[in-house]
Design a protein that fits this description.
The structure is a homodimer. Helix content of chain A is 45%, strand content 15%. Chain A has 12 helices and 12 strands. At the A-B interface, helix 4, helix 5, strand 2, helix 6 and helix 11 of A face helix 4, helix 5, strand 2, helix 6 and helix 11 of B. The structure holds a DNA duplex.
Amino acid sequence: MTRIKDVAALAGVSTATVSRVLNGMTVSPDLAAAVQRAVDELGYTPDRTARSLRRRHSELIALVVPDIENPFFTSLARGVEDVAREAGLSVVLCNTDEEVDAQEHYLRIAADENMAGVVVAPAGPSPWLARLAQRDRAVVVVDRPVPDDVDQVVFDNVDLGRRAARALVEQGHRRIACVTGPRATPTAVDRAQGWREALEEAGLPVPDDLLVHASFRVDGGESATRRLLDLAEPPDAVLATNNLVGVGVLRVLSATHHREVGLGIIGDLPFVTSRVDSTVLLQLRPREMGLTAARMLVARIRGESGPARRVVQPTRPVRLGSPAL
Amino acid sequence: MTRIKDVAALAGVSTATVSRVLNGMTVSPDLAAAVQRAVDELGYTPDRTARSLRRRHSELIALVVPDIENPFFTSLARGVEDVAREAGLSVVLCNTDEEVDAQEHYLRIAADENMAGVVVAPAGPSPWLARLAQRDRAVVVVDRPVPDDVDQVVFDNVDLGRRAARALVEQGHRRIACVTGPRATPTAVDRAQGWREALEEAGLPVPDDLLVHASFRVDGGESATRRLLDLAEPPDAVLATNNLVGVGVLRVLSATHHREVGLGIIGDLPFVTSRVDSTVLLQLRPREMGLTAARMLVARIRGESGPARRVVQPTRPVRLGSPAL
DNA sequence: TTGTAGGCGTTATCAT
DNA sequence: ATGATAACGCCTACAA
C-alpha cells in the first residue's frame, strides 16, 4: 500500500508537508502542487484508522435505528445521509431490531471506533447516551424521546394522536379504536393519549377495549384489527399510530371487506396498492427529521457548545387519500 | 478514558499481558483472573482504531446497496447481519442510491478504514472491487453479476424470467408484456431475456413494444404500465421483473380497474394491501442470499484461499396469490 | 514555510 | 509465561 511517506518521497518533501497539503494548511504553492501531483499519481488516500487514532475521532457517524425494514427509518436515513455527505462525514447504519442489547452493542462500537457522533432512535433506555456525551462524542436522539440530557428531535406525539383522531371524529365516526405500539415505547403511548383526549373533547366514550397495544409492525396491526372486529361492539373507525400498523389494519380491513370502517394513520403508507380515498393520513416526513438531526449533530461535531436542545419536528396537516394514487 | 495501561496498572501486570488475556492467548489463570477483574471494574473496552491500525484490519464489514428503501436490500441486510454478528463482526450499511460515484466513495472508505471486508450489490462497474481484493480485503458481490474475478452470489436471472413468463403463459395469457429495469442493469436485462425465451418457446410473438425498460422503482412500474395500457393492442398480462416495479404495475392496474390483466412479479410484494389472488409470484428470498454472501465473506476473512467462486442462489417455485393474505 | 520527532493505543516480537 | 519495546500511519508541537 501507498503511505504518506511514499508521497513525501515522490514529491521530495517531508511527510509533514504532505499532511499539511492534505489538510489545507498553508504551504507554498509550488510544493503544494508537487505534493498534489504525487498524490494523484500514486492514488494516495490517507489511512483513516491512523488518522482517527491521532485525531481522536473518525469521520464516521453512526445512525442507530430499531427497524431497518420500516420505511420511516430508511427515509430518516436518507435525510441524515444528505447532510452528512455535505459535511464530509460518512454514515454507517446500524439496525437494532428493537433489541436493547443490539443497541448497546452498536453504541459501544461507535464509542470504541471513535466515531464523530451518533444519531439514535432508541429501542430503549441506554447508559451509553450519557457515556458518549461524556467522552465528548456528539449525540442526537430522534423520534423517541429519552429522559437523558442530550439533543433530541421528536414529534409532538400527543398532538399527532389528537389531530388524527379529531379528523376521524369530523368524518362522523363515533366508535374510534386505537391500535398503537408497545407500552414501553413513548411515541406509542403519547399518540394513544392524544387519541383519548380527542375523543373526550368530542364527548365520546373511551372504553378500554378500543385501545390495543401491539407490536409496531404489520403483524401487530393485523392481529389487533382482527381482535377489534371480533368485539361485541366493533369500532366504526380505527386509528393506527404508525405506518406499519396502518398497513396491517388496512390489510385486514380489505381482506374482510370492511370498507365502511374508517381509517386513520399516523405516518405514510409505503407501497400500498389499494385505494384508500377516505383514509386520514397524518404524514410525518421522516426525511426532514433526519435533516434536522444531522444538522444538529454536525454543529456539535464542529464544536458548538451550549445546553442540550429538544426540537419538535413539525408535520403536515391531516390529509385524505392515498399518497400516490 | 480508560486505556489498556490503566487496566495493566490496576491488575499489576504489563500491558502485554492484558492484551493477551483480551485476545485469548495463554496466560496463567491467576493473572488472567486479575486482569479480568480490572477490566470489569473499569469497564474497559479496547480502542478499535488503535487495534485496527496495529492489526491492519478492523472488525467492520461494509454492506453497500443501491437502494436502502427497497425491502429486497433490507432483507438482504438482515441476512448479512445475522451471520456477521455470529462471527463477531459488525455491519455498516452504505446506500449508494444507484449512483456509481457514491458507490466508489463508500468502497474507498471501506478500504481506507481497513474494514475486514465488503459485500456489495453494485450500482455499476467499479475498479475498487479489484483494488480491495488486491489490498487483501474480502469482497463478495451480490445480486448483480460483475465481470471481475471476485466471489459472487447471484440468481439465475434468465431462468427467473423464463419461469415467471411461463407461468403467465400457462394461465392462458397470449400478449404478455415485460416491465424491466435499466439496460445497464444486468439483472434487468437477463430477466427480460428469459421472458423473451419463454414467449418464443410457447410460439407467441414478441413485439418490441411489449418490452419496457424503466427505473427499477415504483414510479418506473407505474409509468411503464400506463404506457402499455395506452397501446393500440394493450397486453393481457404484465411481468414485472422486480418487486418495486411490481408494486407500480399493481397500483396502476388497480387504479384503472384492469383487474382482468394478468400479473407476474419476480420478487416479493412488500406491504401490499390489495388482493392479488391470481398474481404469479416468484419469490427470491433475499435474506438467504445475504446469509450465503456473508458466510463466504467470513470464510475469506478467516483466511480461506482459492479461486473466486460464483454461487447461484436458489429460489422458490412460482406460486400464486399474495404472500400475506 | 518547512522539517524533525514524539505520541495516539494497541499488538507482536524479542528477550528473559 | 511474562515484560519491555518497537512498530502500525498519521498529525502536530516544536525547532529551524
